[in-house]
Amino acid sequence: MTTKNLLVCIIFFIIITNGYCQDILFSDASLKSFLINESCVDIDNDNNPDMDADINNDGEIQLSEAENVTNLIFHIFDNNYSVESIQDLSNFSNLEKLTIIYFNDLENIFPLALDNLRDLSIGSCLNLKHIDLSDMHQLVNLKIEDIDSLDYLNLQNNNFPSGIFSLFYTENIQYACVDDINKEYDEVSYHMAQDVLPSINCKLGITEIDLENQIKIFPNPSSNFFSIQGIEKENSKIIIIDINGLSLIHI
After folding, report:
1. 107, 153, 168, 185: which could join 176 in a potential S-S bond, CB 3.0 to 4.6 Å?
2. Rounded to whole angstroms, how far apart are CA atoms 233 and 235?
3. Where in the chain are the domains?
4. What pLDDT is recorded for position 80?
């Protein structure tokens, strides 16, 4: 190998290594603090966390550290952490099991792009309003328990959990999108708000309006129910107009 080729190989190796050891930039500082300071990684899969996610104890979480984690358990029993977003968990690309309990500041769970996630438990998150699991096709076990604040639930992922599927103590769901699978439809129907049924003919999305404060409207489109988040009612005026230009609601 010539000196020139060797130099090219060394530079290429440095680029690959630096990328793999790159610090993850967290949009939610509280989530990063929790991952670094609290036991949350279950190494032996005994449902008890064994260590934090900062394996090399440098105060950061590198991509290489995240990719070595397969089981995360989040329990917040005090007020030391105010986690509002878990979207950065998408960096834990080999995650197979995720447990989230008592994240009371968490309001939304959007698609996480975790293709290997097979076991998901969400419980007692008192202000959780929006859950979208439509990209999780490999789920075997799914628990969404003790959550009475759900406005929107999207489970339409062309798969029904073959192991555990539980909505125990999760009642009054306002809008749900489900697969055309009897077991899934029946189970979700049982936990819907009065006189409301799940939808199987749904092409759902979230409309985001980039104003000073981000506004989210979901589901979109909708025929009967939708939620608007990110506005202050006392300082805002809302007018809803149908596709024919008719004004339906003034708020």
Report:
1. 153
2. 5
3. 21-70
4. 86
Q: Grade residue 17 by pLDDT with cuts at 50, 70 and 90.
A: very low
Which class for 58: exposed (0-12), middle (13-18), buried (19 or more C-beta within 10 A)?
exposed
DSSP 8-class letter at 192: B
What residues are paired with 169 via a beta bridge?
Answer: none
- In whole angstroms, give the CA distance from residue 58 to residue 155: 38
For the cut 50, the answer to whether the pLDDT of residue 19 exceeds it is no
Torsion of CA 31, 35, 39, 40, to 10 degrees: 80
**DSSP H helical ranges for the chain:** 3-20, 29-37, 63-67, 182-190
CA gap 62, 25 in Å, rounded: 9
The answer to whether the beta carbons of residues 172 and 193 sit under 8 Å apart is yes
Q: Supply the pTM of this predicted model.
A: 0.76
CA distance 155 to 124: 19
CA distances from 180 to 9, 197, 205 (A): 52, 13, 18
